[in-house]
Amino acid sequence: MATVIVDPITRIEGHLKIECEVDGGQVTSAKSTGALFRGIELILQGHDPRDAQDYVQRICGVCPIDHGTAATYALDEALGLQDQIPANGRIVRNLIQGSNYMQSHILHFYHLAALDYVQAPNLPPLVPQYAGDYRLPPDVNAAAVQHYLQALDMRKMAHQLLAIWGGRMPHQRAIVPGGVTVNVDTEKIVQSKFLLEQLTDFIDNVYVKDVFAVAGVYKDWLGIGVGCKNMLSYGLFPQDNSGWNGKRFYPNGVYINGQDGALDPKKIGEDVKHSWYQDGISTDPTEAVITPAPDKLAGYSWLKSPRYDGNVMEVGPLAKLWVAQNPTIRGLGAAAFSVMGRHAARAVDCSNIAHTMMGWLMQLVPGDPTCIPNEVPKEGQGMGLTDAARGALGHWTVIENWKIKTYNAIVPTTWNASPQDAKDQPGPIEQALVGTPVKDPNNPIELVRVVRSFDPCIACAVHLITPDRKVRKFRVY
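Given the sequence above, the corresponding structure tokens read:
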């Protein structure tokens, strides 16, 4: 038996450590450790509630739009605005979030995950690489390297599309309680259409084809990295003003123990048995306030353990498309719950969003209102649920005396990279690693393939570090 530690996992967002026990060439147990402490919810206490949608975008530079959107949904509810958002405001919000989605999905495959399967030239910044079973035919491999470079331009184009409506990227300034601050005019629509056509062409004819080409060569990875097989999605892109349970382009829902079900937000909670926080806190995100406990003996991560009605749940594009009963992903059957299933779901998701955004552009009405006036109440409470590029994202805010009393964000990677919970159930990544074949414990490329298929964003899940905390072993690729 060998203990394999990869610390930090690179080509993800933030600092994640994975520790696995390998016996007989397979992982028998795994631990996922978020190496930093997130304190942004504590920072928000006492602030004007309207500060939230700006502050929380600083959680992450890759997916700030999702955090700003979830925070704004929570404020819409707390301020009693959720049924009053002008149609232009709702559509522009979706366009801003969709632009960031496309950028994030392209980033994940080409610039974070592809080098686990594509043999790169021996040149910076593409080196070093793990020694691995790089199987792509030479012509396909060469094309993938060129697409890696082309994808940089596509990501820039997605940022430009976002900036037309959001003003800038990262940390847009348009999405606010009551709608958006930007006006709709014909010039913006035409500029957006021009950029979106190019992005859609790349997504359909390059990105999706590359993903399925890789999956065709690495078919064995359709059976590796299975995980918990329970799926959770909050849904995405509102189509009306009915709140979290209204009509959305992607519906919300759960899939537990082989059964589809409706979402009940009251069943969402977090525990901290194996997290470096004091025990005894509320599991309710409207009440929970954490106190760090870095010396806690049972703890091994700064991430908490979100659970749905006590169940371990995977979130992300696979979960979203599975809950939505997408025929391509459901058509994979059990093979969808795998490393390649997650990559395929992300590519299909990206294409769906690109095509749908074109329709939204045509629904905009130049000159119509985009926002309604509003005031902060003395007391209030709101919940903002959306699916970020990496999965289910929820923000909860409680207002008391016109200020934020309690704020909590349960982010996608907190679900996926969570440690064991109060029942000692391993988190989704920990479960997905079990059974993974490891050919060479000194060159564990198989482990990072599994982890990166979830597209972890530890930057979203944690934020501060104690400088004198000892990190003992590093393996950087």
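The two ends are 23 Å apart (CA to CA). Try to locate this feature in the token string yourself.
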